[in-house]
Specification:
- This protein is α/β, with parallel strands linked by helices.
- It has one domain.
- The protein has four helices and five strands, in the order βαβαβαβαβ.
- Helix 3 links the parallel strand 3 and strand 4.
Length: about 110
Amino acid sequence: MKFLIDAQLPRQLATWLSAAGYECDHTGGRVPGSANDQAIRDLALSRQAILITKDRDFMEWANVRRPTPQIIWVRIGNATNTVLTRRLEAAWDRVAAELAAGVAVVEVSSS
């Protein structure tokens, strides 16, 4: 699996995923800071990457636009990088299984 992490999430997530053996990039190094959601969506599609984002727009797009990348929708409010990474790590087996099953949007929340 390949991942693209949206700008509002920390680069630390890319480091964590890379250490776990996944190919991972952060949009901060791939698109201009002013890039719109369409450019980020297009980048994820061109790289055949799963988009990790906090942006609700991508989740809503997944229901109406095709093609669309698979999305991990992070619904964790303000949290330190460490807390965010731990929450993703705790949910990762479920997230990976849902992605492998072809689920379009996999939600990770604080509960």
